[in-house]
Every structure is written in structure tokens, then in C-alpha cells.
Amino acid sequence: MAKVTMADVAKEAGVSKSTVSQYLNKRYEYMGHDTKKRIEEAIAKLGYQPNFLARSLKQKRTSTIGIIVANIMHRFSTEVSRSIEDFFHEHDIHAIVCNADDNPKKEKKYIEMLRAKQVDGLIIFPTGKNIALYESMIKENYPVVFMDRKIEELNVDTIAVNNKESTYHAIKHFIEAGHEQIALITPPLTISSRIERVEGYKQALSDHNLTLNPDYLKSVEIPAIQSELDKMFSLSKSPTALLAGNDLVLLEVLAFLKEKGIKVPRDLSLIVFDNLSFAHISEPTITAIIQPAYEMGKKAAELLLAQIMKENVTTPTEHIFEGRLIVRKSSEGYLFSK
Amino acid sequence: MAKVTMADVAKEAGVSKSTVSQYLNKRYEYMGHDTKKRIEEAIAKLGYQPNFLARSLKQKRTSTIGIIVANIMHRFSTEVSRSIEDFFHEHDIHAIVCNADDNPKKEKKYIEMLRAKQVDGLIIFPTGKNIALYESMIKENYPVVFMDRKIEELNVDTIAVNNKESTYHAIKHFIEAGHEQIALITPPLTISSRIERVEGYKQALSDHNLTLNPDYLKSVEIPAIQSELDKMFSLSKSPTALLAGNDLVLLEVLAFLKEKGIKVPRDLSLIVFDNLSFAHISEPTITAIIQPAYEMGKKAAELLLAQIMKENVTTPTEHIFEGRLIVRKSSEGYLFSK
DNA sequence: TTGTATGCGTTATCAC
DNA sequence: GTGATAACGCATACAA
């Protein structure tokens, strides 16, 4: 029965609604000490709870922002969301997280739903398939920040990691350890981050005079990875090093290696592009390219808030962060003697 | 500028607001075909988007429910939330997830915020520290379902797993493999699920004529676990088997074992109480007690929906699900010969 | 310092 | 079949 309203409080306290409203918005400056007290008592007595909806309707501001994550199963997404929430929490803004599940239809639905609910802005890990929708938001000057994936055609604040360079670095690490048969597995090349990772891979190979073997470079859906690996490791010359394009790819790779009895790093050197909860404690520990999720989330939040507040209105830009290669056991000690 | 409103559409179509409203709510039964067409065109032309806020204010129903998770870092929480979201999605109800971070203050804040936003109901993984708040919601007949933790004093729908029996089962599994020095580590005993796990542990020991060694039973905060383990494994008789009370405990345990070079299962048998992303692929694979997260989430959602719809108003009850012990390598092959 | 009137964008109740 | 009109709960000029 949260049906006790401001009018009830006003009546109980013997004042008008406006005065109660003043009180709630902490404009006590010109309020009689006595009035204030009576309102306080009335609120306590009736157990009054303000109705945010009504307030938002009037103010045209919900103090809520939305985060649309491409796939909540990635640890990176979780970390970024967490960081964004923390930031907005300090500004008394509520963040609500939706999972598009890598599905453009769901993404569209969530964008529309959140906008219908009048959220003040959106941080999106775009699937990249709803260009028209993205464009309309930008054209309307609706506050938006894109995360993790760049959409070329769009003029919008975007946060990303230097995918190409980071991948280059990892592949170079393999090459310097003596590897020549280096594989990369990613999900389909539908978004910039994956495309850039492939570019970094190719660049690293060519810069070190290694020819690209198409059998070693696969971009397929997660459920298809194991069969793709099966082909790859049935080749007469199978890879000696492998970069997993993200954490979900890695899980598939590990499952495959376990089943086939392929040992890391003895039989295969391994690196994963992403943050992982167990990279430091698995056996062996796993070399990883880490994205600064916390900083990236914070930056996205700052940019969005600026747009919402219409302060520091900079022209939309890309903000690129650096990935860090954490070398662990999975990429060491490969036996070239064999 | 999503400022195009129903009035604009009405004017554009040359009809009244009421008629537009009818149209939007799909009550075309008594509507002229021509009118309908004109409204459609007007909406398309102006790019009208309905305002959910205004609708909710009027209807006293937001078609939104809240999930307050104790700690989003647990995989179990994620799985349950996902299941709840899926269920409500089918009923065109939006679920928003908040993370209390095991912090009663945050929990309170979120409950109040969500209620102020007029969400239609709440599914809570309670910290257990806001009893008065829980009571007030129940007394007001506000739709609530509790998850994972029972609060004795409260008469409310509650979903949980049979913690005691599941733990008993796991400990028995250790005992039958010949173990006598069996440890259990949990976070502090502030909630029913942890208390019940300890009860199951004690019961299993006593039923098998093993005496309880207090050095083997520790309930401490996550950051204190490693030092506690350090003490435990410095004992003259250190444990030969260990049950990690949840997934976060396990991560600490694994980190400790790795540092100390203690090998599983050779030096120590290991079981974890919880769902884990990598239990089946780690080296060794990890024996786990699995909670049926999907079913539990679904049940919680069903109960909440019934409360919201005021249908099937059953008296609040506990719904207990069964944990399943998945035996893997980490609890096999301990060498008792040494 | 406090009260009155009006509007935010919908939906609901009736007339017409 | 369609259209006034009054809510929903709050905030905000402006008056008093």
C-alpha cells in the first residue's frame, strides 16, 4: 500500500503540497522550523515514500542510465559494467544493465525499451547491426557512448582498447619464443575489435617474414570452435602456438585440449585475449592480454555524464586504451627439440 | 528530442488523444479503418515514441521487477538472474539487477530506490541484516520472493537448495574415500545457507564417528582465507580433504595451493559447493555440488509473478531444491599410502 | 515563508 | 466509433 502521497503528508502536517515538496528537495532555507518539524513527523507517521516516477515525469529526467552489454558472459563486460555503476552511484544515478546476448534484435528491443523508460543516456557495446537506430539517437543528440567496438560511420564517443597493437604484441611474443606455426581463433568478424585483432595477427606475421597459413586463422561461432580445432590439430603440421580471441573462445580451447590430451605449454603455447578469473591460478597459469576494464568503464561513464549534463561538450572522439600482456606459464617452455 | 507526444500525433492525425491511446493499446475493435490508418501514418511521420513513465504513473504498474543480488561475483547469482530475466521477458516484464555487494547498507538503498521507482516486485538474495525493512514490505503485501537464504522470522516465499543434505553428501563422499581429516572453509556464518552447510558437515562427521576438529572448520571473510589456510596447512596433521564453501572461497583455495605447491588430488582432495565456469576443464577437473540455478530462478519468477497478479495466492512457503554432486578428478585418487 | 494553479504524457470514464 | 475531461503524484512559477 505505498499509496500514501504528498497530499496526505500535507494534510497530516497541515501545510500545502508545495511546502512538502520544498522539504523533500531540501530547500529548507526559508522554511519555518516548526513547519519543517511537522512535515518530518507526518512523513514518519504515514511512512511516506516519494514516487520517483511522478518526479521524473515532471522533471524530464530519470536519474537512470542504461548499459547494453553485448554478452554478459564475458568477464570484461562484467568488469566494465561494475566500474560504470560505481561511478554513477557516486552521482546518485542508477545504472541498469541489459544483456543483448550478441543478438541485434534484442539489442534493438532493449534500446527502445530503455528509451521509452526515459533513461537519461546509454552506454552500448554495439552488435553493429542496428546502424539506423544508432544514427537516429545520435542525430537527436541523445547521450550515448559506445564501448569496445567502433562503428566507422558514426560520429560518437567510443571507448576501446588498442586491439591491433595488443595482438601484434602477443604474436610477437610467440615469434620471439621461436614459434612459426601460430594460430588465432576468434568469433565471427562482425565487429571492429575482432577484425583489429586479426589485423594485428597478420601484421605481426608479415613483419617477421612468416607466411599466413589460412588453416591457422579461424573466425567461427563459439559452438563451432571445437570442430574447427579438431581440423586444425589434424593437420600434418599443426600449430605450436595459439591465441584465443576472447575468454569464451579460451574455454572452448581448453576443453578441446583437455579432451585430446594436448598439454600446455609442452605441446602448445597459449595466450588469451581477455580478462579471466582463473588465469593466475589455473595449471598452468595462462598468459593473457588484459584490458584496463575499470579505467575504460570510468571513462565511458564520464563521457556520458558530460553529455547528459551538457558540460564540456567535446566533439565525439575515440578513446583508445592500452592492453597489457601478462606473461605466465602457458606461453613458456615450449620444447622445440621435438 | 523525443519530445513528440501523443497530443502531437493526435493533432497530426486529426483525432483526439483518447483515440490515439486506444490505438496504442490495440483496442482497434471499434475503430474506423480510416482513423487507424491516419494514426499509423502520423506516428511514422513524427517518429513518436510512447512515454512509459507517464503510462506507469497512470496505471500504477511499471512492468518492471527488481533483482537484488547479494554478490554478483558468484556464478550462481548470475545464472539465477539470467533465468529470472528470461522468464519475465516472456511476460513483457523488464528485470533490473542490482548488486548489494554483501553490504546491508547497499541492500537497503537498492530496495528503497527500486520501490521508489515503483517496481512491481522484488526478488532478493537477502543479506539478512535489514529485517525491519523486509518485514515492512511483507506487511504491506508488497510482492517479494527471497532467494538462497532463509530468514527465520519471516513469512515469505523463499527459494533455496538443500544445503545441509548436499554438504552431508559431499563430506560422506570424502569419508567413503577414506578421508578422516576433512576441512570446510566458508565465509562468515551470517546467512542460513552457510550455517546449513556447516551443519551438514558436522552431521556427516558425527554420523561416521569422526570427531570435529575445530582447526579444520573456518568461517572467515574472503581476504582472510589464505592466511587461515596457511595455519591449517602448518598443523602437524593437516587436512587431506577440503570442501570450499562457495566459488569465491575456491578461488582463494586454489591460489593458496598453487603457491604452496600442494597438488590436487595427490596431496589434497577438493570439492567446491557451487557452480563454476571452469570446473570441467581445469587441471585437475573439480568435483562440485551444483545448484539447479535455472530451475530455482524460474520458480522464484513464477512465485513473484503470481504475487504481482494476485493469482494462485498460496501462503508463503519454502521451496527447496536438490543440489547435485558432480564427481570429478579433484576428489579422486588421494594416495593414502604415504 | 507558504499556498495556488498549472502542467508533465498517459489512461480511464463517460458522454456524444 | 470518437472525444472531452479528469485523474496519476509531483514540481514550479507566481501570488500572497
UniProtKB/TrEMBL annotation, chains A, B:
<dbReference type="GO" id="GO:0000976">
    <property type="term" value="F:transcription cis-regulatory region binding"/>
</dbReference>
<feature type="domain" description="HTH lacI-type">
    <location>
        <begin position="4"/>
        <end position="59"/>
    </location>
</feature>
<keyword id="KW-0678">Repressor</keyword>
<dbReference type="InterPro" id="IPR000843">
    <property type="entry name" value="HTH_LacI"/>
</dbReference>
<keyword id="KW-0804">Transcription</keyword>
<dbReference type="InterPro" id="IPR010982">
    <property type="entry name" value="Lambda_DNA-bd_dom_sf"/>
</dbReference>
<dbReference type="Pfam" id="PF00356">
    <property type="entry name" value="LacI"/>
</dbReference>
<dbReference type="GO" id="GO:0003700">
    <property type="term" value="F:DNA-binding transcription factor activity"/>
</dbReference>
<dbReference type="Pfam" id="PF13377">
    <property type="entry name" value="Peripla_BP_3"/>
</dbReference>
<keyword id="KW-0805">Transcription regulation</keyword>
<keyword id="KW-0238">DNA-binding</keyword>
<dbReference type="InterPro" id="IPR028082">
    <property type="entry name" value="Peripla_BP_I"/>
</dbReference>
<protein>
    <submittedName>
        <fullName>LacI family transcriptional regulator</fullName>
    </submittedName>
</protein>
<dbReference type="InterPro" id="IPR046335">
    <property type="entry name" value="LacI/GalR-like_sensor"/>
</dbReference>
